[in-house]
Design brief:
heterodimer, A: alpha/beta, Rossmann fold, six-stranded mixed sheet, B: mainly alpha, ABC transporter involved in vitamin B12 uptake, BtuC, binds adenosine-5'-triphosphate, binds magnesium ion
């Protein structure tokens, strides 16, 4: 079913493409602590890929490697079949990788609109002088960027808080604004670190729906970390399971659910 | 009784009796105030984007002014000297980012602060080596800055505005407005504001720390040059000029380290209030020379009541 080049068709009939990004033999050490031990997995074009595992398993570290915030001690990231050279986070972002953070990283002093607008920075190209003087090209670019941003704001249903400073928003809405900012970049891969953590049931349902819609409407490839197993099983096409820095399972939700190592890891840990 | 009178009544009676003189005092205050505001703005930009309290801002004013005069002494035409000096400030910004900031990224704030003291000492030494230690005269006329005066007769009185001060105020105001437009309207400006708010988030939307740092240090350099020209035109160019940068400290205490509006209003307030105090209270009651300390005392009093400064952005605890 999972031929490396051709991709596969999901249960709900979506066509998943070839391998977009591949993590090859990644090891990450912090001094004596080994956060990730020799992990390999891939992410295919158009799929929703979940990374799960108990606390401290190394999930966020993996996401940080993909987004360039951490540099692996060994192994590397391959993008569209070629090894990606060591890159700083901003370079990875400019390549089309957008992300959210486990602890929410927003520009608290700016409005929702301005926050989402920063997501467009990678799409702004006109020079400083023309921008400062509001010349033709800069103006057209700004208008186009604004349209895109408004579209995303509508999409995520946050029109009502467009002008609100982010610092004043409740947690659940902040998470949504962070998603909006990441989407504004029109990323080819979207990385979400626990997008539903700390949300109530209703907020979780909304967020799940948004994630599915993003994947469906924009065709965005998504890798997400999530603790809520129900959510993971519903959302994801394939799941990587990590425990103590090692990969202990990889496959469809059903395969993973029936994997004895995974069952053991989860039985031993309280969530 | 007598004392209370001269503290609470007489100054206002004097102001009322000679409104033209009051206007003169306010004007002088405004001129220094706008320059304080400009320097404070340099501090705020650097602080917001890198959490560094830039101790070197003052010496950059001197260094920029010396460079300008130095080029002109070598026979370079005045305006070309300005452009070359801007080039030097750019090279300085790039060097500081490369040699000082980049290796120290992630270090505690105090280490970075110490590094800016290092930059200060280096610039003093380097400046003296190249330009010598003696006072120089700003090339005011060569730059085409008018040196005459405007005379008005408000309320049948007398008000004298030196044209070079008027020029300084206009140029500083234009620079402030341009900076605000830059910060609010352009991609780079947005990036600077973003970086000040949250480094991680800024990186995740594709902002390069290095580029922004070079940019803000260069802007601080431009501000230093403009301030150096304006202040140098009034007081000559020497290492003593550095002290006006220390006036930015109380401005920052008042305005808050992160607020751009705070820097501007704080600068104008300090400039105006220290002048008013000196003329109407300082000279009659305290024998004058209060301008050296008044701003600091004022700032300390404000801090007692509002630790985040008058306009400090509200501190929101992260969860
Ligand atoms: N910057 C860092 N410096 C030192 N150690 C780190 C760093 N980041 C992560 N670690 C360590 O790496 C290990 C994995 O952490 P990571 O945050 O990746 O786990 P996680 O799976 O995301 O856990 P959680 O579910 O709690 O978010 C932990 O032991 C953690 O302490
Ligand atoms: Mg985590």
């Amino acid at each position: 079913m999972m031929d490396a080049s051709a991709g596969y068709v999901t249960e709900d009939g979506r066509q998943i493409g070839g391998v977009l990004m591949e993590m090859k033999n990644i090891t990450l050490r912090f001094g004596g602590v080994v956060a990730i031990k020799d992990i390999s997995f891939d992410i295919r074009e158009g799929e929703i890929r979940a990374i799960i595992g108990p606390n401290g398993a190394g999930k966020s570290s993996m996401l940080n490697i993909i987004s360039g915030f951490y540099t692996p001690s060994e192994g590397g990231v391959w993008y569209k079949g070629a090894p990606r050279p060591p890159m700083r986070p901003y370079e990875v972002a400019r390549m089309g990788v957008a992300r959210t953070f486990q602890n929410i990283a927003l520009f608290e002093g700016m409005t929702v609109l301005d926050n989402v607008m920063t997501g467009r920075l990678t799409h702004m190209h006109s020079g400083i002088a023309s921008q400062a003087l509001w010349w033709g090209k800069a103006r057209a670019e700004e208008v186009a960027n604004r349209e895109k941003v408004e579209e995303i704001i509508d999409f995520l249903e946050i029109q009502a808080i467009r002008k609100t400073p982010v610092g004043r928003l409740p947690y659940g809405l902040k998470k949504r604004v962070e998603l909006a900012r990441a989407l504004a970049a029109e990323p080819s891969i979207l990385l979400l670190d626990e997008p539903m953590a700390g949300m109530n049931v209703e907020e979780k349902e909304d967020m799940s729906r948004f994630i599915l819609d993003v994947n469906d409407e924009f065709g965005t490839t998504i890798a997400l970390i999530e603790h809520d197993m129900g959510v993971v099983m519903d959302l994801s096409d394939r799941v990587v399971v990590m425990d103590y820095g090692k990969k202990i399972g990889d496959g469809t939700p059903d395969e993973v659910r029936n994997n004895q190592d995974v069952i053991d890891a989860y039985l031993g840990v309280q969530h | 009784m007598d004392f209370l009178n001269s503290l609470l009544v007489q100054p206002f009676a004097d102001m009322f009796a000679a409104p033209d003189f009051l206007m003169q005092v306010l004007w002088e205050g405004l001129v220094s105030g706008i320059l304080y505001a400009l320097i404070a703005l340099g501090f705020v930009l650097i602080f917001r984007s890198s959490r560094i309290f830039n101790f070197a801002q003052g010496i950059m004013v001197v260094f920029a002014a010396l460079t300008l005069v130095g080029f002109h002494e070598m026979g370079v035409p005045a305006w070309i000297s300005v452009i070359l000096s801007l080039g030097v400030m750019f090279v300085l910004a790039v060097s500081i980012e490369r040699v000082v900031l980049r290796p120290l990224v992630g270090q505690p704030d105090i280490i970075l602060f110490m590094a800016t003291i290092g930059i200060t000492l280096f610039l003093i030494g380097f400046g003296e080596l190249i330009f010598g230690g003696e006072n120089k005269i700003m090339i005011t006329e060569e730059l085409g800055i008018p040196t005459g005066e405007f005379i008005f007769e408000p309320f049948g009185g007398f008000l004298l505005l030196e044209q070079k001060d008027v020029t300084a105020v206009v140029v500083a105001a234009v620079l402030v407005i341009a900076l605000l437009a830059f910060l609010n309207k352009t991609r780079m400006g947005r990036a600077i504001r973003a970086l000040g708010d949250d480094h991680q988030a800024a990186l995740s939307v594709g902002i390069s720390l290095q580029t922004i740092w070079v940019l803000v240090w260069f802007i601080a350099g431009i501000i230093a040059l403009v301030t150096g020209i304006a202040w140098g035109a009034r007081a000559g160019v020497s290492f003593a000029l550095e002290v006006i940068a220390y006036k930015a400290l109380p401005v920052l205490m008042l305005g808050g380290l992160e607020s751009i509006t705070g820097a501007i209003i704080g600068g104008l307030m300090i400039g105006l209030m220290e002048k008013l105090f000196e003329i109407y209270w300082g000279q009659p009651l305290l024998g004058g020379n209060t301008e050296t300390w008044f701003a600091f005392v004022l700032a300390l009093i404000v801090l007692l009541f509002r630790p985040q400064g008058l306009f400090g952005e509200r501190i929101i605890e992260r969860v």
